[in-house]
Amino acid sequence: MIHELSKYWGYIVFRGVIAILFAIFAFIWPALTLSVLVIFLGAYFLVDGIFSIIHGFQIMKKDESWWTFLLIGLMGIIAGGLMLFMPGITAIFLVTLVAIWAVVTGLLEIIVAIRLRKELTNEWMLILAGILSVVFGILLFMQPVVGVVVLAWYLGFYALFLGVFLLSVGFRLRKVHKSYENQHGKHA
Question: Which domain of life does the UniProt lineage start with (predicted)?
Fold first, then answer.
C-alpha cells in the first residue's frame, strides 16, 4: 500500500501548498466580503476534491483504501460546487457546510493514517491533521453565527496547519518512493 501511495506523493504536497496559500490569503484579507470568501473557498474545495479523486482513481486497482480518497474528493467537489454556483449563500449555511466538510474529511484522513501506521513512520501527522479537521468542524458547529472575519481566521489557522501536515506526509512519501526506486529500479 505504501509504495502505491508514495508514487503520488506530489498530490499530497500540492494539497499542502494550496492549503498554505489559502491560509496566507485568509490572514492578509480577513475582512473579505462573504461572497468573495465563498468563491475563494469554493475554488479551493473544488481543486482539492478533484485532486483527491484523481489520486483515488490512480490507486483504485492497487490499494483498497482508494475509496477514502474518492469520498474526500466528492465532499470537496460538492462543497466547492455549492459555493461557486450559489455565491449568495448565507453565513450560517457556509459555516455549516464547512463544518460538515471538515468533520467528514478529518474522519477519512484518520482512516487512511490508521491504515498506513505499519508502513509509514510518523503517520501521526496525518492522524493529527484529521483530528484538527474534526475539531475545526465541531468548533464551527458550536458557533454557527460566527462572523466572516473570525471564520476567515479559523480557516486560515486550519489551512496553515493542515498544509504543514500534508507537506510533511507528502515529503515523507517522496522519500519512501525514492528509496523504493533505488531498491527496485525506476520502473518498478
Answer: Bacteria
